[in-house]
Amino acid sequence: MTPAPNPMVSAEAPRHRARALRTQAFRVTAALCRARLSASGQGRFARFIAGAIAVGAIAIAISLRADDGPAVPMGGLLRKTAGTLAWICGGALALAAARDSRAADRSDGIDALVAARGITSNLLAGARTLAASTQIGFTVGVPAALVAIATAGLAADVSSALRRIAAAFALLAWGGITGVVLGSLAALSARFFGNRGPTALVAIVIGERIAVEALGLGAWSIPGLLRAALSLLLGLTGVGGGL
Question: The pTM is what?
């Protein structure tokens, strides 16, 4: 005798499928938003400059090794490279993400496309935030990590090489932190200030830095906290002070 189907299981199955489809649609939407950000003028600029910074940093590392020997520390070079990538390349992408893209999305049919797949306006805003954070994290973290791996090839011994490889993973993690911070600030600026989002983003970052400096709390500013996180992560790998 065939057992009767469980009505609770039968009711849950469509809900699970619907949830899975919404999750997949959200991921596709985030990937689409990231592709649009990457293809923008600022996105292309950020990629080009990131490549140039990485190549320049590797050239400096080779020069340092040639002049000072294989034992020369590289921690300072890695920190400066990561910071430059964050504020030039990450900053350019954050400014692009801070623009109010809702009108462009409507005119390009993005709103209608994602709405047909069950993505609400709030989910679309979340997808834009995720896309900006991911693209910034990738553009900052990957070139910095490649520089760290290149310096591992210049190390004096295996232990130094391993520390620099560990530093590459630390820089990837810091790139992700930077992406979340700048991407979230950019998304908030676009959401609340519309077409003035880039101006608002600059005002927020500079304004809070001035405010906390005036209070003698410069280390608690956004740049200060990111710098502290970078120093902590690199310090855990033992790459040293460097330049």
Answer: 0.84
